[in-house]
């Protein structure tokens, strides 16, 4: 154990194995050899050893913590969660177990429970910048953007060069319709880590929001030069190319993203938008329907699906699709606008006018709504 603590892993491993040859049921040697194998990146062997140790002492909380960490690394979060719960049953104030339990719940998309776990960890260790960042991620997923921003700012007050916090902060600022600040946050992250592909992609998104499309395309391309299979950057590149009136290239970018990740709903929705620009509404409709089969509550796909149906002259279905989008998101100006267009095509002009007026109340500079009104 002394050698292990000094980082002499090969020597420590040899001694642990010597002990186990003479005493195969030596709990401490099994457990610590499992810890060592995990540190060396041999997760499966570590799992086997710690499992043997726990068979001897099923209630030993530190071994459950080690096994939980190994399972989390092996992307088995549900099993990891069970181990962390066993740790916390005996050691309720184990801040690291609470933090890692939050990671497992976050991976399982159980965001409210993950948030509660991070809050408990932070009550014990308020200066844990990692817990603050992960709390921000969970709050972002829960659409609690102001609170997410506050969590990232707390992390950055403790660690100003925390590039992940700077990058994620940019995401939140975009959701809060503050793209200039989002861009500045991404730029700070990239000044610290120029090859941080997530920040390059998010800088592209901020530039897209600012309608600086040529620069956005450059940022996406820089991310893809470093990571060619980065599906989010491929999808965002497709969005940018559509705005640059290069729809064939945009479609190719979306198709490349979907070849890598066929169930990528954002790329399916974006592909539908490009196909509409190419006047291929049947194919666009099929793309939206695939996205909605994967995520039935995807308001943007429902809204754009209404456009495709309207282009096909299927006005009643288009109207129903827009109305489904508005039930999910009542203050959605684009869905109100598209509902108005459909009603206008159906010669229901008073209702169409009411839709345009509601859209303009939410978005006064909505040029298309002003024109159609």
Protein described:
With 373 residues, the protein is an all-alpha fold. It has helices at residues 2-5, 9-22, 27-39, 43-56, 61-73, 77-90, 95-107, 111-124, 129-141, 145-158, 163-175, 179-192, 197-209, 213-226, 231-243, 247-260, 265-277, 281-294, 299-311, 315-328, 333-345, 349-362, 367-372. The model has no long low-confidence stretch (mean pLDDT 95).
Short summary of the structure?
With 373 residues, the chain is mostly helical. Helices cover 79% and strands 0% of the residues. It is built from 23 helices and no strands.
Please give the largest β-sheet.
none
Count of extended strands: 0
Cα distance, first to last residue?
A: 77 Å
Helix percentage range: over 70%
Q: Which stretches of 5+ consecutive residues score pLDDT under 50?
A: none
Number of helices: 23
Order of helical and strand elements: HHHHHHHHHHHHHHHHHHHHHHH
- Give the amount of beta strand, in percent: under 5%
Task: Indicate the overall shape.
Answer: elongated
Mean pLDDT over the full residue set = 95
Structural class: mainly alpha
What would you report as the Rg, rounded to the nearest angstrom?
A: 26 Å
Topology (SSEs and partners):
Blueprint: H1 2-5, H2 9-22, H3 27-39, H4 43-56, H5 61-73, H6 77-90, H7 95-107, H8 111-124, H9 129-141, H10 145-158, H11 163-175, H12 179-192, H13 197-209, H14 213-226, H15 231-243, H16 247-260, H17 265-277, H18 281-294, H19 299-311, H20 315-328, H21 333-345, H22 349-362, H23 367-372
Helix pairs in contact: 2-3, 3-4, 4-5, 5-6, 5-7, 6-7, 7-8, 8-9, 9-10, 9-11, 10-11, 11-12, 11-13, 12-13, 13-14, 13-15, 14-15, 15-16, 15-17, 16-17, 17-18, 17-19, 18-19, 19-20, 19-21, 20-21, 21-22
């Amino acid at each position: 154990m002394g050698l292990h603590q000094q980082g002499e892993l090969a020597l420590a491993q040899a001694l642990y194995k010597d002990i186990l040859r003479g005493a195969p049921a030596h709990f401490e040697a099994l457990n610590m050899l499992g810890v060592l194998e995990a540190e060396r990146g041999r997760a499966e062997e570590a799992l086997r050893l710690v499992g043997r140790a726990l068979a001897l002492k099923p209630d030993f909380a530190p071994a459950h913590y080690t096994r939980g960490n190994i399972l989390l690394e092996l992307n088995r979060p549900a099993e990891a969660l069970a181990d962390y719960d066993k740790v916390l049953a005996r050691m309720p104030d184990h801040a690291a177990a609470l933090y890692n339990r939050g990671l497992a719940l976050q991976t399982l998309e159980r965001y409210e429970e993950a948030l509660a776990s991070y809050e408990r960890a932070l009550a014990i260790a308020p200066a844990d910048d990692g817990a603050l960042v992960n709390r921000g991620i969970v709050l972002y997923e829960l659409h609690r953007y102001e609170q997410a921003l506050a969590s990232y700012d707390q992390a950055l007050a403790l660690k100003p060069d925390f590039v992940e916090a700077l990058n994620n902060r940019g995401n939140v600022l975009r959701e809060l319709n503050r793209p200039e600040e989002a861009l500045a946050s991404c730029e700070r992250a990239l000044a610290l880590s120029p090859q941080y592909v997530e920040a390059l992609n998010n800088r592209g998104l901020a530039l897209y929001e600012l309608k600086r499309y040529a620069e956005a395309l450059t940022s996406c391309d820089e991310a893809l030069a470093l990571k060619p299979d980065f599906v989010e950057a491929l999808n965002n590149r497709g969005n940018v190319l559509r705005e640059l009136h290069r729809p064939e290239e945009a479609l190719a970018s979306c198709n490349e993203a979907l070849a890598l990740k066929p169930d990528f709903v954002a790329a399916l929705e974006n592909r539908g938008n490009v196909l509409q620009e190419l006047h291929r509404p049947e194919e666009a409709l099929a793309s939206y329907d695939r996205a909605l089969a994967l995520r039935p509550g995807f308001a943007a796909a429902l809204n754009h699906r209404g456009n495709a149906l309207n282009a096909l002259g299927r006005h009643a279905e288009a109207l129903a699709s827009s109305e489904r989008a508005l039930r999910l998101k009542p203050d959605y100006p684009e869905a109100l606008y598209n509902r108005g267009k459909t009603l206008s095509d159906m010669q229901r002009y008073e209702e169409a006018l009411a839709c345009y007026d509601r859209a303009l109340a939410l978005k006064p500079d909505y040029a298309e709504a002003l024109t159609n009104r």
